[in-house]
From TrEMBL:
This is dTDP-4-dehydrorhamnose reductase. It comes from the Bacteria. Its EC number is 1.1.1.133. Keywords: Oxidoreductase. It is an enzyme of class 1 (oxidoreductase). The keyword Oxidoreductase applies.
Length: 293
């Protein structure tokens, strides 16, 4: 089977490349630029449609997106183009070739209404910022297209690749005597390799058919960005930095982020028989890998 991966040079794209090593399927890794990928700009509807037809693609895994949450506040048009319009291109192209779209969305589709129980898949999206709103529009574009699709909402992704919170905090806790990190935004980190392994498992075992719909996938457990930072510092041995909790309004940012966006993973675990690692166990694995680079 031919499987097209978009955003192949991003965090999740790279982790999917690791997961798919040795697969009997033909994975085509694409991105808008960079080495080791076939060039594909997902905002170009004709190019997407040609790529799908000429390679008889039966599954698209869309790992491409506009992911700069702060910048999106001033760059709404481009965020909408990538996170919604381009998603429609992918949905229409895969529908025309009778395939399935696996799309990645975010916990930031939630948050305006303050919850204190983990968010379920059928809960109404109430984004607090432009990024979350454009990602919600992407989900809606898929529904409107009528293509076969599985949408995985995930949260707080980190990995050995690209820019992410773990790498930022490894650097800051090693170089700053003191750090203030918000403790009033609560969610769950996700090691991108765990999500990539889960997606690979679903494709490899051909579990897409009959299981179309929306799923939540993060690591297990709950923490604030402050707790996350404390564990990053502890596991990396950066014990000199004095890490203090602060409120969101003490950390300058244009965007209002969700105060609570923990995802309920009951559905994904039941349907696909997945075992989801606890967040600190995965964090330890990633830091070991980063330290051995
Ligand atoms: N990062 C996170 O914390 C979270 C991410 N998600 C979602 O998970 C998915 C994967 O995220 P992640 O791996 O972190 O994303 P990254 O930002 O690491 O990767 C996205 C990739 O998409 C590429 N891209 C940008 N524009 C285009 C385009 N026009 N055509 C094709 N590719 C393009 C980027 O290239 P370039 O770098 O050159 O722009 C980059 O390589 C996304 O859908 C994201 O919304 C969900 C929850 C949390
Ligand atoms: C660096 C730093 C950040 N923070 C805060 C800012 C913010 O509220 C929180 C997280 O910062 P970030 O900018 O890394 O987070 P952010 O880019 O908002 O991360 C989000 O990315 C998108 C793509 C998603 O889909 C989400 O699931 C989520 O992972 O930590 C501090 O309080 N102190 C600090 O020193």
């Amino acid at each position: 089977m031919n499987i097209l991966v978009t955003g192949g040079n991003g965090q999740l794209g790279n982790c999917l490349r690791n997961a798919a090593k040795g697969s009997e399927d033909n994975y085509i890794f694409t991105d808008v630029a960079g080495d080791n990928v076939v060039r594909l700009d997902i905002t170009d509807a004709d190019a997407v449609s040609r790529m799908v037809k000429e390679n008889d693609v039966k599954v698209i895994v869309n790992c491409a997106a506009y992911t700069n949450v702060d910048k999106a506040e001033d760059d709404g048009e481009l965020a909408e183009l990538l996170n919604a319009t381009a998603v429609r291109n992918l949905a229409e192209a895969i529908k025309a070739n009778d395939g399935t779209l696996i799309h990645i969305s975010t916990d930031y589709v939630f948050g305006k209404e303050p919850y204190n129980v983990p968010c379920r898949e059928d809960q109404k999206g109430t984004p607090t910022g432009v990024y979350g709103m454009t990602k919600l529009h992407g989900e809606q574009a898929i529904a409107e297209s009528g293509c076969r699709a599985l949408i995985f909402r995930t949260a707080w992704l980190y990995s050995e690749y690209g820019r992410n919170f773990v790498k930022t905090m490894l650097n800051l806790t090693a170089t700053k005597p003191e750090l203030r990190v918000v403790f009033d935004q609560v969610g769950t980190p996700t090691y991108a390799q765990d999500l990539a392994d889960a997606i690979f498992h679903i494709i490899n075992k051909r579990k897409m058919s009959g299981n179309e719909g929306t799923y939540h996938y993060s690591n297990e457990g709950v923490c604030s960005w402050y707790d996350f930072t404390k564990m990053i510092a502890e596991y990396s041995g950066n014990t000199e930095c004095n890490i203090q909790p602060c409120h969101s309004d003490e950390f300058p940012s244009k965007v209002i982020r969700p105060s609570y966006s923990v995802l309920d993973k009951t559905k994904v675990k039941e349907i696909f028989s997945l075992r989801v690692p606890y967040w600190t166990d995965s964090l330890k694995r990633c830091i070991v890998n980063l330290k051995s680079e």
